[in-house]
Amino acid sequence: MYNIYKYCFSLLIACCVVTVLSAQRNEVTNDSTKRKVVFNGIRLDLDVSPAITTFLKKGESYSFETGIQAGFNKRLYPVIELGYGGAKKLTGSGITYKGDALFYRAGMDFNLLKSKSENPIYDNLFLFGVRLGYTYFDYELQNISFVDDFWNTNITKNLGRTSSNFWFEVAGSVRVELFKNLYIGWTVRIKNMLFQPDPGALKPWHVPGYGINGDGSVWGFNYTIGYKLLNNK
Amino acid sequence: MRRLPIIFMLSIALFSACKQDETCRESKEVFLRVGFFESVSNKAVIIDSLTVFALDQDGSAMDSLLYDNQKDVSNIKLPLNKEEQASLFVMQLNDLPQDTLFILYQNIDYFISYPCGMIITHTLDTVRSTHHLIKDINMIHKNINTTDVQHLQVLL
């Protein structure tokens, strides 16, 4: 576990260093001798899609999240996302799954939209980026049944486990400045779990922030309302 | 800008439509698989007539027979008791005196998937038998799970 933390922390530091160096390369000051990073402000995003998705999923799983994203040189947008998700589900095998937790994501977006004007009236963004997600939580499995018709046995077990999960995301986003400093937009993301348990070992049915924990990739969608603080266009 | 709510609704419907498959497509059958072999040549033997039944923990015969005077048998599948760590099976080959197979094992919980649930697999410890017709038993594979491999060779 320590090695995983070390690896992820190193990755995050590397991303930050690359960001700063990249930003420095693109901005040249008037005297052409110094490079500088231009701060474009911080935007707070609230995901409003759970108002509909929770209803569509019949309450089997839920996820609420918010994010904070800074802008540099109108190109680089480091982001931190925090949320809370969980699930209570009667699965096809009759096992009842229950688990919920906080989740965290950190990553970097790149703005692919070039503004024609140096200081546009509205600040619209078309972002493409990556995230590293993490959650650590307890989950319960109830009514695990082992029926044997020949020996006339019926064993029922209830199990509790702790799960630690890292996943990687590739995300595409659009943010439109609706009014001054008020943004709406969406993010679509594809997620892949970094580590899978050994064959035969239990795994959670749902991972908060990741989604249903099947064998393949998972798609995610957020619809956000955002407000820009410390606006420095 | 007026189209945004429609795009929003459609996008959410699209991504919510990705429903997980709830059908179990994996095998859940866990059997001890036994083959019959000739002790000298080690060639597979076909038994003309075979009857197999299990004994419960009290030593009395279970109600149902696993094999009832089955013809032309070269291998059999035996279900091990998941509540115990030992199972007893009685075999009668070609109307000859009965032999009893005594199997000691460990039970292991094995998670397949949420549509399929969990099964109990086994790891063989010891296999013994009476020697009316059975000369010896070779343990080929110790791990008993859903994989279709022969675990024991009964030498006649």
Describe this structure in words.
- The complex is a heterodimer of chains A (233) and B (156).
- Chain A has helices spanning 2-26, 50-56; strands at 39-47, 61-72, 76-90, 96-111, 125-148, 153-179, 182-193, 206-207, 211-212, 218-229.
- Chain A is elongated.
- In chain A, the strands form two sheets. In chain A, strands 1-2-3-4-5-6-7-10 form an eight-stranded antiparallel beta barrel. A two-stranded antiparallel sheet of chain A has the order 8-9.
- The two termini of chain A are 42 Å apart.
- Chain A is mostly beta strands and 233 residues long.
- Chain A has one domain (38-229): Porin, CATH 2.40.160.
- Chain A has two helices and ten strands.
- Chain B contains one helix and ten strands; from the N terminus they run αββββββββββ.
- With 156 residues, chain B is mostly beta strands.
- In chain B, the strands form two sheets. A six-stranded antiparallel sheet of chain B has the order 3-2-5-6-7-9, with no helix packed on it. Chain B has a four-stranded mixed sheet with strand order 4-1-10-8, with no helix packed on it.
- Chain B has one domain (25-155).
- In chain B, a hairpin with a 3-residue loop joins strand 6 (99-113) and strand 7.
- At the A-B interface, helix 2, strand 5, strand 6, strand 7 and strand 10 of A face helix 1, strand 6 and strand 7 of B.
